[in-house]
Specification:
alpha+beta, three-stranded antiparallel β-sheet, globular
């Protein structure tokens, strides 16, 4: 079982996106998903006990190695040269995340300005995707978030988005 754990760990490290238990089972041709889940929990615990710079987390429907959140200031400092999301883009992303599936016109109405540029940036960064078109005259595009959105914001799924009550508590 130690070899299985090592293989799973290597697969997760090599994957550029969160790796689901089903995908691990398929690649390994190993039908015992409960054993894979057990091994994943063991790996999570090993990294927790080690208390190093990285940890294994369940995110966006799979497992991925992440830097520890308390080390974020140093990671952000390293990444400072990269272009972060602007306040306007973050506001647009928030509206899409909470209102999805949503039309651009609805985002524009909530923001009070044209959100086209922000939506374009979010599409380029693969945080937002086109979900289809609404069956009304003009067939406007419907937007929603992506798995990468879940990865970037460290969410297992959309139900982990903070509620308005949690926002109010943070502000107080």
């Amino acid at each position: 079982m130690e070899e299985l754990r090592n293989i799973i760990e290597a697969m997760i490290l090599a994957s550029d996106m969160p790796l689901a238990i089903d995908r691990i089972a398929d690649v390994l041709d190993f039908p015992d998903k409960k054993e894979i889940e057990h091994q994943l929990r063991e790996i999570i615990e090993e990294y927790r006990k080690r208390n190093g710079g990285i940890c294994l987390q369940e995110v966006a429907g799979g497992f991925q190695f992440r830097t520890r959140s308390d080390l974020g200031p140093w990671v952000r400092k390293l990444r400072a040269a990269r272009s972060p999301l602007t306040p306007a883009t973050l506001e647009t992303l928030t509206i899409i995340a909470y209102r999805q599936p949503v039309l651009k016109a609805d985002v524009d109405k909530i923001r009070g300005v044209d959100a086209g540029g922000a939506i374009k940036k979010l599409l380029e960064k693969k945080l937002v995707r086109i979900m289809g078109r609404k069956d009304v005259p003009g067939k406007p595009i419907i937007y929603g978030t992506t798995k990468k959105f879940l990865e970037v914001f460290d969410l297992k799924d959309l139900s982990e988005l903070p509620t308005l009550q949690e926002f109010k508590e943070l502000q107080e």
